[in-house]
Design brief:
By secondary structure, the protein is an alpha/beta fold. The chain has a domain of 321 residues. Helix content is 38%, strand content 10%. The strands form 4 sheets. The chain has an 8-stranded mixed beta sheet with strand order 7-8-6-5-9-12-11-13, sandwiched between helices. Strand 7 and strand 8 form a beta hairpin. The chain is extended. Keywords: Membrane, Transmembrane, Transmembrane helix. Pfam families: TOD1_MUCI70. InterPro entries: TOD1_MUCI70 (IPR006852), TOD1_MUCI70_glycTrfase_dom (IPR048354).
Length: 587
């Protein structure tokens, strides 16, 4: 029998002669020793030690001594290895969590798979990839904002209108540290593009405009069929870039500056010189450097700001960077104002978050604190306050008609159209939805596909029907909720009034009577200088220490009492005296 027939490769496992030699040694009681092609140094030392032990093992005393030493060494080695394995099996690295999802630890490879060689090895379990979306967070236990509750409204019968209420904000530094590093989750919709049409077709059933693209009712219905990838009308239809030959045209320098805004943008608008520009208050230095404050104005407002000296050559009015809008698509300034209000994500393509406030409002809280309180802490992508009084669309429509906000026929047509689509009055069956009517002067958004789609569809309801966006809000929201689990954070109106202060429109301010100047009391009359004494032979008369009231002169520094206060206090004393007289007469 040859080595080839035995299947033995001499190059890998040694020659046949060596194998026969090992078999003979095993018969004589000596363990065979396999050698590789190039035995290692450690193996050679083991062989020498083994031969040395065998040489002296025949002697009785030496053999017993070696046996005891070997037993003790084996016992100590077993204890040491066993203790090391127990300690190393439970070794773990402290968890490192990001968005509560990534955990780094050492796997128990020895316990599960056993040692692979003489050297103990550990296998490091790689953490899962970081999440691609923001999953929210919770404040640590014991944080005061966790137990914060709204106090009951003050019982003031003289003041029954809306008023602000306290809100638990985080400090600006903490709010900035909690800013999400990745976008929030967008249910169903992942990719949203916008329709561009150079040659518009005006074959629409009713409503619409060139700026909006005249979408048909079929296109409107398709836009509510939420899919993973969608292309919808979203204003700026006639131009390849929003603000460039689209209607609502902007200067190239403004477009370039707006593209550089890649974080948070605070936007507002004043058209027709309708309001005064209100400067934000309580803004941190970090927000002044990192937040974009943009005020959209028209030619009329720009002319007023320049002639009044409020706007300089840098196009800034205080903290606001003004942007002049040319060729507005609507003659109604209120409808034109819906473009920066609802389509801010189109004009700021790189911004992640936006805060819209009406031109009549004054911002009094830092934007990062507002975003943390109403978006990030709630894990929401769209936040808007509910109306302080009305929560039903039908009631809101009647209130708009009574106040003359729009012509009654158009409002009735819009409400009837929504009613045929399934709009019903608000009831408890719609819970957890708490209202169908928003107070739309403030909108807080994260620019993710689903919230951008909601803003686009809401704008086209305003473009097709009336400009009263409170009437169309619930229709857009409910259509999207039918296909997704997307929710909107509708917070209390009193919370909105905590971070914005409402001012009067310019026409109201001009018709208001100027405040009366404070009445300055006339200076008291000085006594006439005493006349020189007449020469007389009569002896001088000593003046009396008693003086009459008529001769008392009040000190110049003392103010006389107010007339109104005197009348009120005198009338009270008079009423009290009369009441006492009645009591005396009755007794």
């Amino acid at each position: 029998m040859t080595g080839g027939s035995l299947g033995i490769r001499s190059g890998s496992y040694g020659s046949l002669d060596k194998q026969l030699h090992n078999n003979i040694n095993s018969i004589n009681g000596v363990l065979p020793i396999q050698s590789a092609r190039k035995p290692s140094k450690m193996l050679k030392e083991k062989e020498r030690l083994f031969h040395w032990i065998c040489k002296f093992a025949g002697r009785k005393k030496v053999g017993m001594l070696l046996l005891c030493l070997i037993s003790a060494a084996v016992f100590v080695w077993v204890l040491y290895v066993g203790k090391g394995e127990d300690g190393q099996d439970v070794v773990s690295v402290g968890n490192i969590s990001v968005n509560n999802s990534i955990t780094l630890s050492i796997s128990e490879s020895l316990r599960k798979h056993g040692p692979q060689s003489n050297n103990m090895t550990f296998s490091l379990a790689l953490p899962p990839p970081p999440p691609a979306v923001f999953l929210g967070y919770t404040l640590p236990p014991g944080h005061p904002c966790n137990t914060f509750t709204l106090p009951p409204p003050p019982a003031d019968k003289k003041r029954t209108g809306p008023r602000p209420c306290p809100v638990c904000y985080l400090p600006v530094e903490e709010a900035i540290a909690l800013m999400p590093k990745v976008p929030s989750y967008s249910p169903v919709l992942k990719n949203l593009t916008y329709i561009y049409e150079e040659n518009l077709s005006r074959k629409t059933e009713f409503g619409g405009s060139e700026f909006g693209g005249y979408p048909t009712l079929k296109q409107r219905s398709d836009s509510y069929d939420i899919r993973e990838s969608m292309s919808v009308h979203c204003g700026f239809v006639r131009g390849s870039k929003p603000g460039r030959n689209t209607g609502y045209d902007l200067d190239e320098i403004d477009l370039n500056d707006m593209e550089q805004c890649n974080g948070v943008v605070v936007a507002s608008a004043i058209f027709g010189n309708f309001d005064e520009i209100n400067q934000p208050r309580n803004i941190s230095d970090c927000s002044k450097e990192t937040v974009c404050f943009y005020m959209f104005i028209d030619d009329v407002t720009e002319a007023y700001l320049r002639t009044s000296g409020k706007m300089g050559g840098d196009r800034k009015v205080g903290i606001w960077r003004t942007v002049v809008v040319h060729n507005p698509p609507y003659t109604d300034g209120r409808r034109t104002g819906k473009i920066p209000k609802l389509l801010v994500h189109r004009m700021f393509p790189n911004a992640r978050f936006s805060l819209w406030i009406d031109g009549k409002l004054e911002l009094v809280v830092d934007p990062y604190q507002i975003l943390e309180r109403f978006l990030w802490r709630k894990n929401a992508t769209f936040a808007i306050s509910r109306h302080y009084k009305r929560f039903d669309v039908f009631t809101e429509a009647e209130a708009n008609k009574a106040a003359g906000k729009y012509d009654n026929a158009s409002i009735d047509f819009q409400v009837e159209f929504y009613k045929n689509e399934g709009l019903t009055p608000y009831s408890e069956e719609k819970l957890p939805i708490t209202s169908d009517v928003p107070e739309g002067c403030v909108i807080i958004r994260e620019h993710v596909p689903i919230s951008n789609l909601a803003a686009c569809l809401w704008f086209h309801e305003v473009d097709r029907f009336t400009s009263r966006d409170q009437i169309s809000f619930s229709t857009v929201r409910d259509h999207i909720r039918e296909k997704t689990n997307w929710t909107i954070n509708m917070f209390y109106d009193c919370e909105r009034r905590n971070f914005v202060v409402q001012k009067y429109h310019r026409d109201v301010l001009e018709h208001m009577a100027p405040p009366l100047p404070k009445a300055v009391p006339p200076p008291p009359l000085l006594p006439p200088p005493p006349s020189p004494p007449a020469l007389s032979n009569e002896p001088p008369v000593k003046p009396s220490t008693e003086t009459s009231p008529e001769s008392i002169v009040k000190a110049p520094g003392k103010r006389p009492p107010r007339r109104g206060r005197d009348r009120r206090s005198g009338s009270r004393r008079h009423r009290k005296i009369v009441a006492d007289a009645r009591d005396i007469d009755s007794s």
